[in-house]
Design goal:
By secondary structure, the chain is α/β, with parallel strands linked by helices. Helix content is 39%, strand content 13%. The termini are far apart.
Length: 537
């Protein structure tokens, strides 16, 4: 490399610079002549034994071969409507662009393709479910249900229930998402009789499964155990899945396949911007719970540094002395080298120190199901004043007497997760507060925590979270069962997402099943992406 350099000639060098103020060094740099046309160079993820140069040459060779037989999946009308470059141009210039503007044009086309195929797949799944007949249910008088409740349902709750009833009176099976903010009352939609979870003994599971198969139970409430092949139903008519169980597209389909195309209702405790919800839950109709039940109060939220921890604890004591209960949430379970609060050690320290005059409980995800249930029952019955916990309390805990929460290392959580945690307090008639403690006072952390202090609206918070952190919490394929995205970034490409959703609808309005010649390549891409969830088996 040294011998290739010429004296008095200019070069671009790219690499990690080391050294001191007097002497600078750059080891194994990328070297380009200043007059080269290839000033924009691709940087690839490498494995051992591969260099950037080797990979660039291989990609260049692949493009030279591939471009001779390239196909164009987008219909001409869609390309012209949205002014996208050809796929051949995009592939060439995403790897070897002349400048960053051209690179952006190429990227936009590839992002659009990815989101369009994903959206088409979700729409086809939705229409496929509409073609299948479900159980047509008779209209029921809901007055007895409403009168039996110890509270009055909100308008949004009643509307959501009416949406579901209307869906289930049709020949097509219901396929609906009920989405609401923390504490908006989604649980009021469902009720249980039998319970089936992974923590049961083999004998207990066998008895319940036999009851389900012979129709002894009218309703089954459970975790992923309900999806297992060994769990069978006599006549499954309605499937309700809660997001806290992380049921994805495939798992929803697996559970639904246990009946003759039953009605399906998905409950989501994560407020999601509507555009993103249409992508994640594109195969579902959507009902939104916009209001909180009567009597709920907004939770006052404060962000402080560790220097004010003792003052915060005195504030907690004030609540406890008034007969209320509280939470302290930590991000870690066991000790580590990181400067984070460890829940086990922390709970012991608090119970022997600051809160020695109160009953302190401990809750974390590595406890057995029975242990967790016992702790939560003790907390509900006020046998525990202060519960020190990991994020296992994020969902499914409703203790109206809990009115104060402290979250340690708050900068370690996303905004939406902090909002979910905060939602564990303020569920009763008492004034409630949440204190966020962090010693990370960089500009981004401060900005994020200020957002929580300004609003209790989960939908606004989710919009901000999406902008700041990206769609990880909302759009992980592991969480939602959707194919992973390779190039699209949901936090940056929302405009292209909207175009993709519009284009998908236009294409399917003219060709519902993508059977026309102009859409044949799109259909192949959809089938390939959804080869598991789109199969008829």
């Amino acid at each position: 490399m040294y011998k290739q350099l010429e004296v008095d000639k200019e070069y671009y060098l790219c690499g990690r610079i080391t050294g001191n103020l007097v002497r600078k060094e750059i080891n194994s740099p990328v070297i380009l002549s200043a007059d080269t046309e290839d000033k924009v160079q691709p940087v690839y993820h490498l494995t051992e034994g591969l260099s950037q140069q080797m990979l660039r040459k291989t990609v260049r060779l692949a493009l030279n071969v591939f471009n001779k037989n390239i196909y164009e999946p987008l219909p001409k009308g869609i390309m012209q409507r949205y002014n996208f470059c050809s796929l051949e141009y995009a592939l060439e210039n995403i790897h070897f662009p002349k400048d960053m503007h051209i690179c952006e044009l190429a990227k936009n086309r590839l992002v659009f393709d990815e989101l369009l195929v994903l959206q088409l797949g979700m729409q086809l799944m939705k229409s496929r479910s509409r073609e299948k007949s479900g159980f047509v249910l008779k209209m029921q008088d809901m007055d007895s249900f409403y009168n039996a409740l110890p509270f009055i349902l909100t308008n949004s709750q009643q509307t959501a229930i009416e949406d579901c009833i209307r869906d289930m009176q049709k020949e097509q099976p219901m396929n609906r998402l009920v989405q609401g903010d923390v504490g908006s009352g989604k649980t009021a939609v469902a009720a249980g009789v039998a319970l089936l979870t992974g923590s049961m003994t083999a004998k207990q599971k066998k008895l319940v499964k036999e009851g389900l198969e012979n129709g002894e139970y009218a309703v089954a409430v459970g975790t992923h155990a309900l999806v297992q092949q060994t769990t069978k139903f006599k006549k499954l008519a309605l499937v309700i899945t809660d997001e806290q169980h992380r049921f994805g597209v495939e798992q929803r389909a697996a559970l639904a396949s246990k009946g003759e195309n039953p009605h399906k209702l998905v409950m989501s405790a994560t407020p999601i911007p509507r555009t993103l919800a249409l992508m994640i839950y594109g195969d579902l109709d959507i009902s939104v719970l916009k209001e909180l039940p009567k009597g709920r109060q907004p939770v006052e939220t404060y962000a402080v540094t560790g220097k004010l921890r003792e003052r915060a604890f005195n504030y907690v004591k004030k609540y406890l002395d008034e007969g209320r209960q509280g939470y302290i949430v930590c991000p870690m379970i066991e000790e580590s080298d990181m400067d984070l609060q460890d829940v086990k050690t922390y709970a012991k320290k608090l119970s022997q120190g600051t809160f020695k005059d109160y009953t302190v409980g401990l809750l974390h995800g590595r406890m057995s199901g029975a242990q967790k249930e016992q702790v939560m029952n003790d907390f509900k019955e006020h046998k525990i004043d202060l519960l020190v916990s990991t994020t296992v309390v994020e969902v499914g805990v409703d203790v109206p007497n809990a009115a104060i929460m402290v979250i340690e290392n708050a900068d370690r959580f996303g905004l939406s997760q902090l909002h979910q945690l905060r939602g564990r307090v303020g569920r009763g008639k008492y004034k409630s507060s949440c204190i966020l403690i962090t010693d990370n006072v960089n500009e981004e952390s401060v900005k994020r925590l200020k957002i929580l202090g300004k609003t209790n609206d989960g939908f606004k918070i989710s919009e901000e979270d999406l902008k700041l952190r990206g769609p990880g919490d909302f759009f992980g394929s592991r969480q939602h069962g959707l194919p992973a995205l390779k190039i699209a970034d949901m936090s940056q490409d929302m405009d292209i997402l909207r175009k993709a959703q519009e284009a998908a609808q236009l294409i399917r309005n003219a060709d519902p099943k993508l059977e026309r010649t102009e859409n044949i390549y799109l259909r192949e891409l959809v089938d390939k992406l959804f080869d598991k969830t789109m199969s008829d088996n």
